[in-house]
């Protein structure tokens, strides 16, 4: 993971000490390792861990609509509708990654983004953390997706977004979270 873990706590009651790490796979986005750990009761166990550099997601609200992109997700063998998102590049701050991903996937340029919350995606086997950002003052431009990225930009009202959740078109945690943060924002004027 890039940067310091914002949730780290030195006093872990059930900490597992890593005795050995066996690299299994290193890819473009993730790596997989098998850790031998010492449990609090003194016994050893194994943990398969997916290492990820971290990611960003951006909820863009303009004219009471949220920007989403539809794209094919190979692990699921189907298309999903999601908020713009992507992984952190080496040495990149989450804020600059959010602004880059926003421009690449939607064509929108933001002068600034506001961090809403950071959260883990699957802490049972992966260290990926997503930093969710908010932007509402953007200028329109041209999409610049990655060479291997095919997506379609859409703008949804809050009711349409919630209907997409009910219909199963939106199923990923970051987008569902963004929709409920948006609803909270409409009701209270606060992001969290």
UniProtKB/TrEMBL annotation:
Cite the CDD domains for this sequence.
Answer: NUDIX_ADPRase_Nudt5_UGPPase_Nudt14
Cofactor(s) needed for function: Mg(2+)
Protein biosynthesis recorded as keyword: no
Keyword Hydrolase present in the record's keywords: the answer is yes
Q: GO molecular-function annotation terms?
A: hydrolase activity
Q: What is its EC number?
A: 3.6.-.-
Task: Write out the entry's keywords from A to Z.
Answer: Hydrolase
**Which residues span the membrane?**
none
Report the Pfam families cross-referenced here. NUDIX
Instruction: Please list the residue ranges annotated as the Nudix hydrolase domain.
Output: 51-185
Q: Which SUPFAM superfamilies match?
A: Nudix (SSF55811)
Q: Which PROSITE patterns match?
A: NUDIX, NUDIX_BOX
Known PANTHER family for this protein?
A: NUDIX HYDROLASE DOMAIN-CONTAINING PROTEIN, UDP/ADP-SUGAR PYROPHOSPHATASE
Hey, which family's this protein in?
A: Belongs to the Nudix hydrolase family.
Tell me the protein's name. Answer: NUDIX hydrolase
> What is the organism of origin for this protein?
Marinicrinis sediminis
């Amino acid at each position: 993971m890039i940067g310091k873990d914002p949730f780290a706590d030195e006093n872990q009651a059930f900490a597992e000490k890593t005795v050995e790490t066996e690299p299994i796979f290193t890819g473009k986005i993730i790596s997989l390792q098998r850790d031998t750990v010492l449990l609090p009761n003194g016994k050893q166990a194994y943990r398969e861990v997916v290492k990820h550099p971290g990611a960003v997601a951006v909820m863009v609200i303009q004219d009471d609509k949220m920007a989403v992109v539809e794209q094919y997700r190979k692990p699921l063998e189907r298309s999903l509708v999601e908020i713009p998102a992507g992984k952190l590049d080496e040495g990149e701050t989450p804020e600059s990654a959010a602004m880059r991903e926003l421009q690449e996937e939607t064509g929108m340029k933001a002068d600034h983004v506001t961090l809403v919350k950071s959260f883990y995606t699957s802490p049972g086997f992966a260290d990926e953390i997503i930093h969710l950002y908010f932007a509402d003052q953007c200028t329109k431009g041209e999409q610049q997706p990655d060479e291997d990225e095919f997506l379609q930009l859409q703008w949804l009202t809050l009711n349409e977004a919630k209907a997409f959740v009910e219909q199963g078109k939106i199923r990923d945690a970051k987008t569902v979270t963004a929709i409920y943060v948006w609803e909270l924002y409409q009701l209270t004027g606060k992001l969290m």
